[in-house]
Each structure stands twice: as structure tokens, then as C-alpha cells.
Amino acid sequence: MTLKTVGLIVCAVLAYLIFQQEVRLRDAKLNRAQLASIRFGPTPEQLATRTPAFAYKNHTVTPLARFNIRARVMSAEAYRLDRGAQVSPIDLALAWGRLAEKGNYTRIEVSQSGRWFYTRWAGAPPLPLQEIELSAANMHMIPANEAVERTLKRVSRHDMVRLKGFLVAVNSPDGWEWRSSLSRSDTGDGACELVFVEAVEIEAD
Predict the structure, then answer these.
(1) Is the residue at 39 inside a domain?
(2) CA-CA to 147 of 20 to 30 Å: which in 34, 121, 184, 201?
(3) 26: which residues sit within 8 A by CB, 6+ positions away?
(4) Is residue 140 one of the residues assigned to a domain?
(5) Is the pLDDT of residue 152 over 80?
(6) Which domain covers residue 72, as residue numbers?
(7) For the chain, what is the domain count?
(8) What is the pLDDT of residues 80-90, one digit of tens each?
(9) What is the C-alpha to C-alpha distance for residues 187 and 3, in angstroms, rounded to an integer?
């Protein structure tokens, strides 16, 4: 390999890295603009909506409630092969309230599989069990656009995120349906939130 070839490769890599950084900055600017007017509280905000159903990737998305949340990411899991991946490529296990504090959520080991999330800890739980159950959820994320999807795929454990969107029901022409929970206190099958994400921001440390 000649010095010229090496130089061309280095230039190409640098150009790619610069491009990726520009994309991240542009995505962050777009998301931040949509989130600027929202005052996020310590718990998820769920409001009534009259937003009509709309088409999305050969599916029909029906908004059930407006949804805003600022939360700690306990785990993130990408999905590519299941039925839901056609609309939702990633799940986030989120914590809010006291559970989002470093001294609490870091004591919990979290895993995700099959669109579920699982928790365990050594010794006594960091908080009362009921508070943990009411302060965490596995949420299926549907990105509204490519900028949102790129940001969601950069999210990782320990990040604090802010997002706005809708809790939704999704239907396809073949009869398949996926519907969000509208309760923070339910558990088991159907208890996860299905979130159509209009904007998301990863907060700076």
C-alpha cells in the first residue's frame, strides 16, 4: 500500500467522521427545537388527544394519548427480526422519580428480551417494590423520522432522555394489532407503552 493510498483512506475516514458529527448536531438541533416548549415533570405526562389516525410504513397509527417523559435509561435493546420491528426498532427500559437517581437504578440489573424487560438485585431492593414497579417501564419506540431513529439508536444505559410523542395503537392490513398500555400500574402481557416518538434528546452529562 502506497503512502498516497494511505493518505486517501485517512482522508475518507476523517470525512466520514466529520459527516457523522454534522448529522448528530443537526439531529440534536431538530429534536431540541420540538422539545423546547415542554416543561417535563418528575413523572411521565399523559394527556388526552384528538389527533386523528395516520399512515406509517404500511400501518395505521392511532394516537391514544399525548405523551411526554424525562427519564433515565436503564437498558436499551434493538430489534430487527420480530413482527414489531417493522415499526419499532428499539425498546428502552426507562426509570423516573427516585428510581432514576444513580444510587437507586445502578443497584438494579436490567435485561431485555422478547419485548420484555427483567430486573433483579442483590440483597434488599433499593426502593420499595411498589415504587420500583410504578417508576419503571419497558417502552417500544416508534421513530417518527430518520433523525429520531438515529438518536434513539445512540441511546444507552445511564443516559437521561427527554422525549415527546403519543401512546398509540398500530394496525396493519393483515389484521395484526399492537396497542399501548395507558396505565403506569399494570404488569404482565400488554403492560408496555408503545410510543410514537416525535422528538427525543439525550441530555448532556
Answers:
(1) no
(2) 184
(3) 147
(4) yes
(5) yes
(6) 45-202
(7) 1
(8) 999 999 999 99
(9) 61
Pairwise CA distance, residues 176 & 183, whole Å: 22
Cα angle, residue 144 at apex, residues 139 and 150 outer, rounded to 5°: 80
Asked if residue 29 belongs to a domain, the reply is: no
Is 197 within a domain? yes
The grid cell for 79 is 430489534
Predicted TM-score (pTM) of this structure: 0.84
Which string of DSSP letters, residue by residue, matches the chain?
A: --HHHHHHHHHHHHHHHHHHHHHHHHHHHHHHHHHTT----SS-EEE---PPPEEETTEEEEEEEEEEEEEEEEEEEE-SSSGGGGT--EEEEEE-GGGGSHHHHTTSEEEEETTEEEEE-SSS-SS-HHHHHHTEEEEEEEESSHHHHHHHTT--TT-EEEEEEEEEEEE-TTS-EEE----SS--STT-SEEEEEEEEEEPP-
The dihedral over CA atoms of 95, 131, 194, 162, expressed in degrees to the nearest 10, equals -30
